[in-house]
Amino acid sequence: MTGKNTIGFNLSSDSKRTFQTFNPVTGNSNPTVFFEATFEEVNEAVSLAQNAFVQLKSISIEKRASFLIEIAQEINQLGDELIQMYCLESGLSEQRAITERSRTIFQLNSFAKEILNGEWIKASIDEADSTSTPIKPDLRKMMIGLGPVVVFGASNFPLAYSTAGGDTASALAAGCPVIVKSHPMHAGTGELVAQAITRAAKKTEMPNGIFSNLNAQGYEIGRHLVEHAGVRAVGFTGSLKGGRALFDLANQREFPIPVFAEMGSVNPIVIFPQILSEKLAKIASHLATSITNDAGQFCTKPGIVITTNSGFANQFVNELKLKVNEQVSFSMLNPSILQRFEERKKEILSCDNLNFFETEKLSGNNIGRQTIVVVDAKQFLSQQKLHDEAFGPLSIVVLCDDLGQLNSVLSSFDGQLTVSFFGTDSEIFANQHLIQQATEKAGRVIFNGVPTGVTVSPSMTHGGPFPATTDARFTAVGIDAMQRFLRPVTFQNCPQEMLPAELRNINSLSIPRRINGEWTSKDVHKKD
Ligand code: NAP
Q: Is 391 in the pocket of ligand 1 (CB under 6 A)?
């Protein structure tokens, strides 16, 4: 462990500003001293990334895929050192670290497989037609990378949404060099992964600058990166406040760039009365685990549970409190995260006419007490402070007079990552208007299940309308995530020998292409 910045293939530590990571379980600082990047080091990383972007264009997709596979192997080979560092810096369990590592490796391998099949290129060829009026030119379109991408990871996923996480893997797959602004809470985990990526880049002969990893605590370096003229897009996972600030900054640039910010969500859970009467204990148990697992530090944690004031509502609330009380308490990721949780909880509890339950104060370090807040729908609707995310083990149960009021509560939410429904078949069918409303609000609508546990799969949407993300057209999880870092380009009447291989008459790459409107892997057979 060096504590240095990775700038292309070099390590660098020009700054006198340093920081250390923190072990939230022991309450002690970890030993490595990390050197913050300087503006000059940022400029160097961006300049190398710009050069690498040009060079990447002449590197085959097979080689790019082998780079991603090699990163996955190098991460795996970090073995226990990575797992131990992850646990030391996050306080999360070894099992969680292993699961997250598997997910990170799986993501990298999935993108490698995806880029080889060529569908993402969306190659499209419309041949010239001199007989049409007006005359149609020869048009050939494909997707290409945007250019250097800056990635900000979140505190709560040191691997899967961080240095080699979904944003980095999808940007590299799209042919974009990546500069990571390392998360200061897990800078050591970040450095180990950065070293793995650098080794993989050298082994697979990628250009110097395809990847950099910059240390920073505070906003200065991140802002400089987002404002840098050489940067073409930003991938961000974190708080609404942070994502919004960087989105605004990118739009104020002389040349605005897209910021794909994946932010928080309250993930409303709707429970219909019939299912509550039938499966009360099971639902309460399922929710309690989802609310408290890893101290509720998930963007998909159920933050608001909505049900009607049927005869079973009070019994359900009591059962939920009981189950929450039975769950293990975890140290939160960092004292500053705990402090933010406590402040947010105080804000919620200062609202009118609610009651709440908190688990006992435990003796461990940085433990946030698990909390269930109960409020009636009228009070909920009149107090905006109750509507936003509390990042930690807290959930609000909203009790409605009837399904009409439940509808009003659901419509009061802004964009969400998820909305979940617990209902019998007949309840689901009878309330299709609510499902429709959820489809308009969220990136994922879940039936009889909880939102935590985001499967990495082509059909997953991990996104949603603002403020869940800054661009509802995309997902941050699954192979479609790379679409964020691509743009279309059309060649009009371009000579064959000047065209990229993807668009020539002979389909040497054997990729699927839309020729004159029909999908095929065949060559273009000239009409004349
Ligand atoms: P955060 O405080 O927003 O920090 C994320 C990163 O952005 C850090 O590197 C931080 O730098 C930087 N940053 C934040 N505000 C900035 C600003 N104004 N200017 C420049 N840089 C800025 O988030 P976090 O506490 O690490 O993560 C927890 C949040 O992430 C929760 O809200 C959770 O719901 C969300 N999350 C969302 C997803 C998703 O996929 N939607 C997944 C996981 C987590 P410094 O730390 O150096 O200040």
A: yes
Active site residue: 41, 70, 191, 262, which one?
Answer: 262
Query: Which domains are delineated in the chain?
Result: 32-263+476-484 (3.40.605.10), 269-447 (3.40.309.10)
Nearest alpha-carbon partner for 463 in 420, 417, 494? 417
Tokens representing residue 95 in the block: 């099992």
Task: Using the mean position of ligand 1's atoms as its centre, give its distance from the Cα of residue 10 in Å.
Answer: 27
Q: Which two tokens stand for residue 388?
A: 């936003």
| In contact, 249 and 76? CB cutoff 8 Å | no
In whole angstroms, what is the distance from residue 306 CA to residue 320 CA? 13
CA distance 516 to 528: 15
Per-residue model confidence as pLDDT tens digits over 120-166: 999 999 999 999 999 999 999 999 999 999 999 999 999 999 999 99
CB of 111 closer than 6 A to ligand 1? Answer: no
What's at 337, amino acid-wise? I
Question: 299 catalytic, yes or no?
Answer: yes
**3 state SS for 230-253:** CCCEEEEECCHHHHHHHHHHHHHC
Helix (H, G, I), strand (E, B) or coil at 311: coil
Buried b (16+ CB within 10 A) or exposed e, 203-220: ebebbbbbbbbbbbbeee
- 237 C-beta closer than 6 A to ligand 1: yes
State how beta strands 371-376 and 354-358 pair: antiparallel
Q: Which amino acid, 8?
A: G
pLDDT > 60? residue 528: no
